Each structure stands twice: as structure tokens, then as C-alpha cells.
Amino acid sequence: MATLTLSEASFTALLRDAAKPVLVDFWASWCAPCRLMAPVIEAVARQFEGELIVGKLNVDDHPRVAQAYGVMSIPTLIGFREGLPVMRLQGLAPKHVVLQALESVWNDGRDGE
């Protein structure tokens, strides 16, 4: 499994316990750009398997989490390191843009390539 399906509880636990950087895709099933972004998220998850934890959080099912992180439009990607948000990317983006945004998530100087 390349990506995790997150609930409010599993999201909170993941941020608290993760020893690796975390990328969360805030999405909804009715969102066409979210559906277009899904293959990009899956590709990133496969590329960095073992180095980056990638999760998907449905904002319709878990609106409190989206609200807590100021997610006003979807898709929104938020990268976390040590439980804290360190990057945000809103809207549909190609893989190279996601990889560039992920540079700030790595704490060891890794450039995401």
C-alpha cells in the first residue's frame, strides 16, 4: 500500500508518532482536480516508499482536521516534519512541482530527487 487512508484519529497518531516526514493529501471524492492529482500522489508515495509517509484525508469525512490546518480549497498537500507543517501546496500540480515543494520536508538536506 503506497498511501494511507487517514481518519481524524489516525492522522493525529501519525503526526505524533511518525519517525519520517509525512505528506498529507486533503481531498474529496467529488473534487475533479483531486482525482487528477491522485496518480501524482501515488507516484510520489511509490518513489519515496520507506522515506516518506503519504496519507490521504477526506475533508468531507473529517472537516475538523481540514479546518484546524486552514484547508480552504482542495486538493491541498501539507508536508509535516516532527509533527509540524513545513510545506503547503494548493491546487492541481504536476509531479515535478510536488517534488520541488517536498524539498522543505526533508530534514537531512535531501532534495527530493
UniProtKB/TrEMBL annotation:
Pfam families in alphabetical order: Thioredoxin
Coiled coil: none
Transmembrane segments: none
GO cellular component term, pick one: cytosol
GO molecular-function terms, A-Z: protein-disulfide reductase activity
Active site: C31, C34
CDD domains recorded: TRX_family (cd02947)
One biological process term in Gene Ontology: cell redox homeostasis
Annotated disulfide bonds: C31-C34
Residues with site note (Contributes to redox potential value): A32, P33
Positions marked as site (Deprotonates C-terminal active site Cys): D25
Keywords of this entry: Disulfide bond, Electron transport, Redox-active center, Transport
Domain of life of the native organism: Bacteria
Thioredoxin domain boundaries: 1-107
Homology family: Belongs to the thioredoxin family.
Name listed for the protein in its UniProt record: Thioredoxin
Organism field: Alicyclobacillus acidocaldarius (strain Tc-4-1) (Bacillus acidocaldarius)
Lineage of the species this protein comes from: Bacteria, Bacillati, Bacillota, Bacilli, Bacillales
